[in-house]
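Might I ask for a little of your time on a matter of protein folding? The record follows directly beneath this note:
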Amino acid sequence: MSSCHVLVVEDEQTIAQNVVEFLEAEGCTVDIAYDGKAALVRLGQQTYDVLVLDLGLPRLDGQQVLQHLRHQLQLDLPVLVLTARDALSSKKACFDAGADDYLVKPFSLAELALRVRALHRRATVAMPGGPLRAGPLRLDLRTQQAFVGERLVHLSPRCLQILEALMRDPGRLVSRAQLEQALWPDGPPDSDALRSQIHLLRRALAQEGFNGVETRHGLGWRLQAADDV
């Protein structure tokens, strides 16, 4: 699991540290959040391969984190739920909310690592093939990381979604309606939401020297083709 980046969300520090140490020994890169709100901040700022999520969290419980992950952030990130709740109704509620696996406490660290490995393997196999490219810009679909040349561009999940839509066919115009449907299937939160995300994407790319996102007023946006950049 050398390329697996895991976020562990667990408020019991001893359990969290044991999980982190074991997964790191297995070759994972691991971050920790100790409450639900901190987890959502990390999920909005960083791309992960697997989320290990406790249900009984302070500030925002695991069920709410899971719902926000699926419905607001629109992430397909594999989620392994950790909980002392072993009732079938609890398991059903988690799977209905979008969980991929469920492990009841107390649990074996070795079993947890096996489940993380399996979730990561399935997600990796399901990902599309090679990276998308447009001039010096590259988007790795497997790791969900963007680069200008060899420089990593730090993008939020929504900015990555916009960039992927633009990079699928550089030079092709992508309309506002197409992008809003991709980012917010249930409808955008307000009329400026997409414009704000485009601004964040442009700023992040410009910081690394790429200025190839073109606005066609009233029509949409396009990514300049390789011979234009």
In short: The helical segments are 13-25, 36-45, 62-71, 88-97, 109-126, 157-167, 176-183, 193-207. The two ends are 37 Å apart (CA to CA). The chain has a mean pLDDT of 86. DSSP finds eight helices and twelve strands in the chain.
